[in-house]
Specification:
Helices cover 63% and strands 2% of the residues. By secondary structure, it is mainly alpha-helical. A two-stranded parallel ribbon has the order 1-2.
Length: 294
């Protein structure tokens, strides 16, 4: 179960001390090496299924912290701009999957039979083999009838729908795969709902709905590798869209204060930005190589 908000704040205070930072660095490096790197850390990490008490407490802590930040900013007379968060849905499978509580052993075996059968067909099917994809999809749908909360199942449903060109269903399944992921490394639907709620209920808060913008700008309306290097880190095109969304929100904030805001037409295009940055195909490849190595 995650600690309380006050316990987290106290821990953050002590971690700000230089002596604590040294101890934290040494122990974190040691734990990383002993556990066998990133894969080992995930193997031993605590899982938080979607409806677990620990996950609910995390959401509550996030909501309270967000509202507290807004109150401090508002009392200081500044304008609050909140941004939703996007992430890679199409090309990044969930880190950890769990079954729903109370699933009987018999139902678990039936679920596994359908799931494995679907996997075998999907792995052998080519993108244009509609008949095979439909067979795989049917097995996954049978498994979903037994337990829909398994993140990897939802990801494979999304993959089937995606290959079949049924992008609305694919987007729904990929989104559920992220939301059911028991290792919370990407902002899920609940996190973004809290951000939108805070913006809607507080006067003067401006929302930059980056997640919606990314969905609208992504291929087939599904966030994926066209914007992201990995699960959350953006390509330069994604960075531009993020900056553009924030530019529009800041413009709106300045307009409300009658401070002669820049017009939306003053935004530079992506090509103009890359030219001013001196970006070349070589530098872009270098950036991509560095991102993939880290």
């Amino acid at each position: 179960v995650p600690p309380s908000a006050s316990a987290i704040q106290a821990r953050m205070f002590f971690r700000g001390l230089r002596s604590a930072q040294l101890v934290t660095h040494l122990t974190s490096v040691n734990n990383y090496l002993v556990s066998g790197g990133a894969e080992g850390i995930f193997e031993h990490a605590h899982k938080a299924p979607q409806d677990s008490s620990g996950r609910m407490r995390m959401y509550e802590n996030f909501k309270n912290n967000l509202w507290s930040i807004y109150q401090d900013v508002n009392e200081g007379g500044a304008i609050t701009i909140l941004s939703t968060l996007g992430n890679n849905l199409r090309n990044w499978p969930p880190y950890a999957s769990t079954h729903k509580p109370g699933l009987s052993e018999t139902d678990r075996e039936r679920w596994n039979d359908y799931y494995q059968a679907g996997n075998e067909i999907l792995e052998m099917a080519s993108d244009g083999d509609e008949a095979a994809l439909r067979r795989a999809l049917d097995h996954f749908l049978q498994a979903r009838e037994i337990d829909e909360t398994h993140a990897a199942l939802q990801f494979r449903l999304g993959a089937c729908y995606d290959k079949l060109g049924e992008y609305v269903q694919a987007r729904e399944a990929f989104t559920l795969a992220r939301d059911y992921d028991a290792h919370i490394l990407r902002a899920d639907s609940a996190i973004n709902a809290i951000i939108r709620e805070c913006a809607a209920l507080n006067h003067g808060v401006i929302l930059a709905d980056v997640e919606e913008r990314f969905m609208n700008e992504s291929q087939d309306g599904i966030m994926g590798g066209d914007l992201y290097y990995d699960f959350v880190h953006l390509h330069l095109e994604g960075e531009y869209l993020l900056a553009s969304s924030m530019f529009e929100a800041i413009t709106q904030a300045l307009a409300g204060r009658h401070e002669h805001p820049a017009s939306a037409a003053a935004q530079m295009s992506y090509e103009e930005c890359m030219k001013l940055l001196g970006l070349s195909p070589y530098l872009e490849a270098l950036l991509l190589s560095g991102a993939l190595e880290t």
